[in-house]
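Input record, target 12 of the design panel.
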């Protein structure tokens, strides 16, 4: 998956009502840690967000939770995708971001194919890569957002079945510019499915408006979109089943500089991990719908989520 800013929360009674209406994952029990004694000379936590809505929302969620607890926080829009994330860490422009475990691992290891559907193994391998460049990851979230292969109902009907294995090599595939190298894109199609769409690949954006418009306008037949993209259901499009298990464990995972981890220690980890533990896949889908379709601001969407789960009490 290619690369992908948040705020306050509502009372427990409201949270109970809203969560009762939700479906899918079991309801998490969010617990807000006691306020830590924050070192006065600790560095500002600068959170980098990639150029898509979900990344902006995630940055706001963690940023607002940290700011509410008393940490100095700034947001930094990177204006691009994963390649800019690790460059910004290296230059010191950011020291915190929200990544996706499998995709980050494969980017850092040169697309070596180490990532898998096992989040524990994938996260462990990611930690090894991060350690070598002075970074650390905290606990991955249950929330997953991975690449998905999306078609219109008409194309789905023309396929032998609504599955990735039913794709044919004459179809035009549109998606992020790293698709020819990304293990969850063209290389994965070749290795896992024996289908090579590289000749008909159209480089667009990271599951953004260019890809959406191209699928809607018929310029491509298959779009790489993020699985939590609210536009998929809104348009009535079809997510093809990954029937041979190519897609890896792209759980949301916080990545921080060693400097920040050492400065703030266990209280920071406890707070960040508690936010991650509360975050569910269904939350990402709903928040993306509000951002992409209802055109709400990322900070307001994040504030509602934090209020719902009690992080701004």
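The sequence produced for target 12 reads:
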């Amino acid at each position: 998956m290619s690369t992908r800013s948040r705020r306050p929360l509502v009372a427990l009674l409201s949270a109970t009502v809203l969560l009762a209406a939700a479906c899918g994952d079991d309801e998490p029990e969010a617990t807000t840690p006691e306020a830590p004694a924050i070192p006065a000379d600790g560095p500002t936590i600068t959170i980098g967000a990639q150029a898509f809505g979900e990344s902006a929302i995630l940055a706001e969620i963690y940023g607002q939770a940290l700011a509410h607890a008393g940490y100095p926080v700034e947001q930094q829009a990177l204006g691009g995708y994963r390649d800019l994330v690790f460059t910004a860490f290296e230059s010191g422009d950011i020291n915190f971001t929200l990544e996706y475990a499998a995709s980050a691992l494969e980017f850092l290891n040169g697309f070596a194919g180490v990532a898998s559907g096992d989040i524990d193994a994938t996260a462990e391998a990611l930690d090894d890569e991060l350690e070598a460049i002075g970074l650390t990851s905290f606990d991955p979230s249950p929330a997953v957002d991975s690449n998905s292969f999306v078609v219109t109902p008409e194309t789905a009907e023309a396929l032998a079945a609504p599955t990735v294995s039913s794709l044919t090599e004459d179809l035009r595939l549109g998606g992020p510019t790293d698709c020819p190298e990304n293990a969850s894109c063209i290389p994965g199609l070749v290795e896992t499915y024996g289908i090579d769409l590289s000749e008909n690949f159209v480089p667009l954006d990271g599951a953004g408006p260019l890809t959406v418009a191209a699928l809607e306008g018929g310029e491509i037949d298959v779009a790489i979109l993020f699985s939590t993209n609210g536009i998929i259901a809104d348009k009535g499009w079809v997510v093809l089943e990954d029937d041979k298990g190519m897609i890896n464990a792209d759980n949301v995972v916080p990545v921080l500089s060693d400097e920040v981890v050492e400065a703030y220690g266990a209280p920071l980890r406890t707070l960040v991990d508690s936010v991650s533990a509360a975050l569910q896949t269904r939350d990402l889908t709903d928040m993306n719908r509000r951002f992409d379709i209802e055109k709400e601001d990322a900070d307001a969407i994040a504030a509602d989520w934090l209020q719902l789960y009690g992080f701004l009490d």
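Residues 1-24 have pLDDT under 50 and may be disordered.
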